Amino acid sequence: MRETVAMIRAAWLAETSYRMNMLFSLASLLTMVVPLYFIANALQSTMATRISAEGSQYFAFVLIGATTYMFIAACTSALPSALASAIGKGTLEAFLGTPTNWATLFVGLSGYNILWALVRASVMIAMGVALGARVALHGLIPLVLIVFLLVLAYGSVGLIGAALLLRYRTTGPLLNGVLTASALLGGVYYPTYVIPSWLQQVSKAMPLSYGLRAARQVALLGQPFHAVSHDVIILTLCVTALLPIGILCVATSLHYARKSGTLGHY
Amino acid sequence: MGTTIANPNPGSALEFALPAANAPTVVVSELTKRFSSRSSVREMIGGRFRKVATVVDQVSFEVDEGEIFGVLGPNGAGKTTIFKMLSTLVVPDDGYATVCGNDIWTEPARVRSRLAAVSSDERSLNWRLSARENLLLFAALHKVPRREADGLVGAMLKRVGLEGSGHKMVAAFSSGMRQRLLIARSMLARPKVLLLDEPTRALDPISAQELRQFLRNELVDRQRCTIVLATHNAEEAFGFCDRIVVLNKGRVLATGTPSDLRARYGEERFRIVTTDPDHPCFGRLEAMGVMRRLVRDVRTADGWHTLECSITGDASRTASVLEMLYANGVRVARLERVEPSLADLIARIIEATSKGISNA
Q1: CB contact (8 A) between residue A10 and residue B189
Q2: For a FRET experiment, which of A204, B46, B153, B306 has its CA 20 to 30 Å from that of B350?
């Protein structure tokens, strides 16, 4: 735990040494939420009936969708991008040369990106609420649990991406493919039941579909946790299937890199 | 190989293996590593898709506690790969190695807690952090207790002469300062073995000399640390190391102390600075078979000439050569020993081996 905290702290100190970048990163949230507010309000009358199973206010609906998507996208790419950066900077071998095990190191490497995304997501939600998005406060704890499961599911995809990066020095189309498909078919801007029926079958393969539906029902409709248990169970099954695969892929790729001597290669 | 010190709480960090008394600190036995690389299009057409190159070929050596052991070889000799295998960053194909009695195959975490590798690659530091922040990060990764970390970092910065630059961003450091910071970072782990991969490569001669003195006085004499140093600089290896292994193309050519290697493979080479390079005394010494001139004459702007020659025999023979030159009125400003160049040494070892007179 201490090693992870030290790595996150170091990443934070390095990031804050680029002060303007930090400011722009936060300011960019404004340019995301404010247009979303105007567009969602303009579409409110059209979308109200279509989103009725997951909420009544389209701005709140799309705010939860966009924020969650932004967060899980950051979680998915956190480890691959941190590893690519560590390989490029030449720090990966130095880290792996310490007695700290690789799993702790990898959590530490991606920790800052995930925490920063969490801060950005929280700021987005707070800005949305300030602009009039109606979020049920008692739904926040189940919302956190659902988002945590989503992070584990998409983090597992990130682990597979990290394995590809260690093995081939590229994640290929995996991360972009999964994230684009999730954005289009996972119910970020519209509920999954409005898309054509054959595409709905594809959307059932996206953990985001279940996560967002459950998240909106608890956070926007104020439904109790047991009302969304079906989606949560499916999400848990996704995590149970994906996480061991992700860990196995990374362990195998790490062993390959050690065997082939490519650990520190660009 | 070693003795296991068990504690009442097995599996905890307190249980560790110590090498038996007088056992070597580092044992490398028949270590072999082969890397495969992609073939060219022409080779692929010929059905050969991968090329396999043996970069470390059955290398064996042992290093004792408190020894400075040089791994000398040209680029591509396998020095860095051996270091990476000892650091458990590269998995060997054959052979084994132990560090303080811990096997690199089966106990990599214990090996990493006993050994620290210092790469000459300054990029492995975080340039956007200060020296102190860099060290604090690695103190945590080396599991230095939190209450000790701050004091230890301060002490290490002081020891490498960076106490006044601890809060400065590493990006603003010179190469020499970064090199010293890399050494301070490796010392945080209080390692028993330090692997130094060409540590003086980016340093000017004065900084390099200071670093060598620091390594000898502070790490070896004071802390009884074992140093394994990779270099392609024969002068550094012969002048600084207690023992040397000479590698070429992944294979061990020779192992021994500098004087032993000089005696086995090198003629004693000297540089004489004189104003009379053509004095008949030199010719007489050559005729007697005592001396052989190798590099004839390099004239300096102020009238001095430099001769490089070999002198057979021991130090007393060299002293008598100098006396003879003085007695015959040859003006000699300096007579000094010249370390063999790496290329010369390798050529001589290969030549000696082919003649079958190698001691190996």
Answers
A1: no
A2: B306
Chain A residue nearest residue B36, CA to CA: A260
Out of A3, A13, A98, whose CB is closest to B112?
A: A98
In sequence order, what DSSP letters do the residues of A131-160 get, joined into one string?
TT----GGGHHHHHHHHHHHHHHHHHHHHH
Q: Do A263 and B90 touch (CB under 8 A)?
A: yes
Contact A5 B128 (CB under 8 A): no
pTM as predicted: 0.80
**Chain A residues near residue B135 by CB distance under 8 angstroms:** none
Return the exposure string of A30-44: e unless at least 16 CB atoms fall within 10 Å of the residue's CB, then b: eebbeebbeebeebe
Q: Name the residue among A254, A92, A259 with its Cα closest to residue A162.
A: A254
B98 touches chain A (CB under 8 A): no
Q: Is B53 on the interface with A (CB under 8 A)?
A: no
List the 179-238 stretch of B: residues with Cβ below 8 A of A. Answer: 189
Q: What is the pLDDT along chain B (360 residues), one digit of tens a residue?
A: 333 333 334 443 334 444 455 678 899 999 999 988 777 777 777 777 777 889 999 999 999 988 999 998 888 889 999 999 999 999 999 999 999 989 998 888 889 888 988 876 777 888 889 999 999 999 999 988 888 889 999 988 988 888 888 899 999 998 888 888 988 898 888 888 999 988 887 777 887 888 888 888 888 888 888 999 998 888 788 888 999 998 888 899 889 888 888 777 766 778 888 888 888 888 888 888 888 877 766 677 677 888 888 887 778 888 888 898 899 988 888 888 887 776 777 777 777 766 654 444
Residue B157 near residue B130, CB atoms below 8 Å: no
Nearest residue in A to B87, CA atom: A97
CA angle B267, B269, B271 (to 5 degrees): 170
Complex-level ipTM: 0.85
Number of other residues whose CB lies within 10 A of the CB of residue A213: 21
